[in-house]
Please model this.
Amino acid sequence: MKVALLALLLAAQQPQDTVVLNPVVVTGTRVPMRADRLSSVVTVLRGNDLIADGIRTVADALALVPGATVLETGSYGGQTSLFMRGGESDYVKVLLDGVPLNQPGGSIDLANLTTDNIDRIEILRGPASVLYGSDAMTGVVQIFTKRGDARRTRVGADLRAGTYGSSDAAVDAGGGTEKVRYSARLSRFFSDGLYSFNNTYRNSVASAGIQLVPDERSEVTLSYRYGDALYHFPTDGAGVPSDSNQRSAERGPLFSLGATRRFAGHWEAGIGGELHEARLFYNNEPDSVGDFNEFWSKDWIRRASANTLVTWRNADLVALTAGIEYEDQRQRGTNEFGPPVDVQRNTIGYLTQAVVSVGQSGVTVGARLDDNSQFGTHGTYRAGLSYRVSPAVRLRASAGTGFKEPSFFENYATGFVRGNRNLKPERSASWEAGVEYHGVTVTYFGQRFRDLIEFSGTPIPPDSVNYFNVGAAIANGVEASIGARLSPSLDITLQYTFLHTRVEESGSPNNPDGAFVPGKSLIRRPAHTISPKISATRGRVHVMLGGKWVGSRDDLDFSRPAGQQRITLDPYTRVNVAAEYNLDRFVLSARLENLFDDQTQEIVGYRPRGRTILVGGRFLIAL
Model:
């Protein structure tokens, strides 16, 4: 789309920092706007900087963003979750070229999402359901893929290998003309894993994008991506290696098509369509004769949507936007013990937004109404103010609401677990206030979550369901970041997050070892996180030294003979180093993760990856 192209061109003019402080972004308002005019915080990670730092997955990129906590179950391919500003792991909507990657109900595993063919990642923190509907309770992560360079054709190849029998190979190409631009990439990653048996992982990705510009007022974009991942894991629910045949797989395509047209006067209109399909497999064959822990399941999930967005602009003073979105969600599944599942629901969303600028300050207000075939209508809003006190100081404040619909499993599960078709959407109300001064940004935020969906191992009468709406919690804290260019060749950044969470209401208040205990914190949310980084570039050499310190946090230990127990995990530190040496057409690269081999567990029972190194290079030809 035109907005995406404009954002790309302007962002490319920014300094070469991994965290770009003031680019033009789209995610915050769905129209191009400078980040320093927004009332909410948007962080931009550039694809080229992620490549230079040797970052392979989106999860590794997000781990250093203020307010974000990324947790993984150790080995490559293990379950990887994102917690933003204290919310649940299904409270962040993840989009790739506008296509939602979350399953219906918000859940997402980031283990298989790579940085292949990525131009940039925009991370909006705070509620955004007013723009993106369900799932955007505490933030939005939007990934934009490359569109090629009209000035030249580029062909490249990557090859790296290292610890745990890991190998990473890829080929890519990009180029085009003023009318047509394209990019494509094929990659495959393989690893033997952490454990001595049944821990191999492979992930193959095909990605392509085309941009058509028939005239100066029109643009059409197409994106396609196909992923195929297979993960063998020997661990049980407590992280204990005990199974030699257990494995899971995820494969499927996503596709997006968008077109925009600027008309005479101040009008711009766009239409789009998105499709994401995923086939999920799980298989646990008997390890030996007499083993009765066998189980298998197969699920097919599809999210398809269409939208139209109309914007009226008056230069940089006013932007009025209105849109309609329709989404259809479906899931079919079978497993060894329960009857087949075949469910469907749809949503029509109506949104409107006004962005008014006065000098270097501005006001943003928006509202949305979603009409869902299952739970009815739900309204959300957002309002914000950005005020420029002086050329060096900017104040901002915003407040809004968000919601997340239940997952299909929570609604329709059968067998050992029974879903509840009467569940209500989970809700949030949030506000934030911040100040920016010469590369220093400080934000205070407060959030209140209502109607949290809880699980009970004992079915609840009169419907004998296992899921119910009861939970309530709060999350507030401070995000601070400092970015500075000390010299033309040396950049530093420092990110800090303080987070306080507290459960206010629970369906099982008398269980001191539950996930929701009144008066206790939400599990797996650290109170303190610090992430420093130094990047140096001189001549042909680029070096990055980065780290992350994560403070103590509560978790549930499922390995206790008497049942799960709530415990507090120790803080941990990870230090990473990356380096590149540019030989024009060939770039030598190396990345060393967990430099000091810290073995402190991120999640109870699961080993972290130890000291890990990947060494290789990129070959590039410009035609």
Q: What stands out?
A: Residues 1-21 have pLDDT under 50 and may be disordered.
